[in-house]
Amino acid sequence: MIDYLNIPTIALINTPISKKLFADKAPLSAAEKRMLREDVESIAMKGLLQTRTIGLPSYSDDEYLYDQIIVSEVRIKSLSKASAIATMIQRAFPVPMFLILSHDNQYSINWCVKRINQADRSKRVMEEQQITRFFAIDDRDIIARSWLHSLDITKLQCPTLKDMFDELCGRLIMLTVSDEAEVFIEANAYKVEQFRAVLKELADNREEQKKVSAKIKAETQFNAQLKLSSKLKTLQFEEKRIKEKLK
Fold first, then answer.
1. Would you list the domain boundaries of the chain?
2. Lower CB density within 10 Å: C or N end of the chain?
3. Per-residue pLDDT tens over the stretch 154-192
4. Among candidates 89, 93, 86, 84, which has minimal Cα distance to 109?
């Protein structure tokens, strides 16, 4: 999986982080310690992107610091714990990080923006995390195969490390966009924010559908059921209309 990022040789590392060291250094809850022990196989740093290794200048302001970007990999034992494990590991690293999760030849990539904590500038506030679906690197997943080839960082034209991080984030969300559109769509810097808004609209629509479906199951009055069913059909039609915005 790491090969698709095409990280320059000088920026490649392979530094294992023992679970004991991670547990000693990271502020983990009792539940997280158990998850680390039972659901994580291994953790390793795979790439270190900084001025010295890829030539891009760092970026800093009052809210953000991008003097390095880490690429790490965690091998997990359970797909159901992927998001929780990603949160645990992201919180342990104050620097921006792309985290590859792997399980039985399936992969997912997790990332989030980390803002400087104004009360303690040595700490970071994690903004909304994002994570791709799990995918296999084979010829059967046509969309994922095309998308993987778009992640080559040597093809990114970026003035700073922050711009590289933002650009790669934009390319990562295109797996979800392409899945919804049912065809691979190349990242477009001018459309990424539009795609994000459409994905949010889709998520809100589907959440509302779940709520209406639950009400239909609980409703005993026939007329009320009909009214709710009509609302559900409207939402389903709206979902199709929203998806068309991605094509």
1. 2-154, 195-244
2. C
3. 999 899 999 999 999 999 999 999 999 999 999 887 789
4. 86
Give pLDDT tens digits for 34-85.
Answer: 999 999 999 999 999 999 999 999 999 999 999 999 999 999 999 999 999 9
Q: What is the DSSP string of 43-103?
A: EEEEEEESHHHH-PPPEE-SS-EES-EEEEEEEES-GGGHHHHHHHHHHH--S-EEEEEEE
Beta bridge partners of 43: 17, 74
pTM for the whole thing?
Answer: 0.91
Count of other CB atoms within 10 angstroms of residue 220: 6
* Mean pLDDT on 93-116: 96
* Number of CB atoms found within 10 A of residue 244's CB: 9
Which DSSP string do the residues of 107-145 spell out, in sequence order? EEEEEEEEEE-TT-TTSEEEEEEEEPPPEESSTT-HHHH
